[in-house]
Structure formats: structure tokens, C-alpha cells
Amino acid sequence: MNSFTRQTLAGLRLMIVMTVLLGVLYPAVVWGVGQVAARDQAAGSLVQADGRTVGSALLGQQFTGDAWFASRPSASDSSGDVSGGTNLGPGADLDAAVAERARAAGLTVGTAAPDALTASASGLDPHVSPENAAAQVARVAAARGLPASEVQQLVTANTEGRQLGFLGEPRVNVLRLNLALQALAPTKGA
After folding, report:
1. How many helices (H) and strands (E) does the chain have?
2. Which end of the chain has fewer CB atoms surrounding its CB within 10 Å, N or C?
3. Closest Cα to residue 46, out of 175, 181, 190?
């Protein structure tokens, strides 16, 4: 057997071994660890309500109307199919987008929570800041005929702390908050 044939066969054997290791065994091990160690997260962190899946705790959704807490602005349709590029860097385009969002929401630039007027990097962030949620309490309470203090208690109960106690900022998952709100005071047609 000549040198070329020997090297070709060695290369083929290496390719087959690496394909099995990295294309079959490694993904199977990672999947298995995910199923054992983090089953909920590995399944997409799906949120159930009334026995049906209503969304993922990891993906933002659009809520319309005064009776709901609003998510961050996004160019995404919130299906999870479209992601990325919904935020803008400093400049005239960002200033115009923020001014338009403020006008549409009846907010004032500079006094509103920044995440009420700016999009997240992915456009799929399900969280708002506690300040953003607190600014929406009066509107939601009035639309549902609830005391503002009761709605604020829901915001407080659905505020998540920093991850591992020091990473990130406190945040409110809007999907979970709106589900808690719906359980407290259902709206017609919801």
C-alpha cells in the first residue's frame, strides 16, 4: 500500500471517529445532562396557564391594551422566529425612535424608564425593569378596576433579583406578571 492510500485511509478513519464523537456522542451527552440537570430550561422554559402553553419565560410577548403590562419595544413579532437587530446605537435614528415611542405611549423622554423607550438587543427580552413596571401600575389598575396597591404587590411578587445574587439587574418578567394579573382579575375575552 502506498503512502497516499495509507494517508487517505487514516484521514477517513479520523473523519468517521470524529463524526461519531462530535456529531453523535457529544450532542447526546449534552442533551442527557440538560434533561437531568435543567429539564425545564432544556424544554424552553415553557409557561402553562389553564392547562395550555401560553409562551416561554425566555421570550418577550406583545401585550396590547391598558389592562396589560407592556413589554419592551421590539421590531420582532414576538413569535421567536425573528430576532436581532432591533436596538439602535447612539445617533439620530435612536433619538427619533425614542421620541416616537414616547409620543405613542404618552411618556416623557428623560423621566420614563429607559427600557420603556428602547429595544433590547435581541428584540425578544421578556423582562422590564421594576421602574418600568411601577410606572405602568396606575394605568393597569385603572383599566382593571383594582387598587393600585394590589397591582403593585403583583409587580413586587414577580420581580426577580440579580442572578446568583450579583449578576445583572432586578427585573420583572412581563409574561408571568400578566398571567398573575389575569388570575387576580380576569378581563373579558382574555
Report:
1. 8, 5
2. N
3. 175
- Contact (CB, 8 A) for 47 and 179: yes
Q: Which helix (H) or strand (E) holds 140?
A: helix 130-144
> Do residues 34 and 41 lie in contact, with contact meaning Cβ atoms separated by under 8 Å?
yes
Is the pLDDT assigned to residue 124 strictly greater than 80? no
Locus of grid cell 425612535: 97
Q: What is the pLDDT of residues 65-115, one digit of tens each?
A: 899 999 888 766 555 555 666 677 889 988 998 899 898 888 888 899 999
User: What is the C-alpha end-to-end distance of the chain, expressed in Å?
Assistant: 75
Q: Please, are residues 19 and 11 in contact by the beta-carbon 8 Å criterion? A: no
Task: Please check whether residue 190 lies inside any domain of the structure.
Answer: no
- Domain identity same for 104 and 126: yes
pLDDT tens digit sequence for 37-69: 988 888 878 888 778 888 787 777 778 889 999
13 lies in the same domain as 82: no
- Nearest-angstrom CA–CA distance, 76 and 87: 11
What's CA 146's distance to the chain center, in Å? 27
Distance between CA atoms of 110 and 174, rounded to whole angstroms? 23
Cell numbers placing 31: 442533551
| Residue whose cell numbers read 407592556 | 70
Query: Is the confidence at residue 18, as pLDDT, over 60?
Result: yes
What range defines the domain where residue 68 resides?
A: 45-184
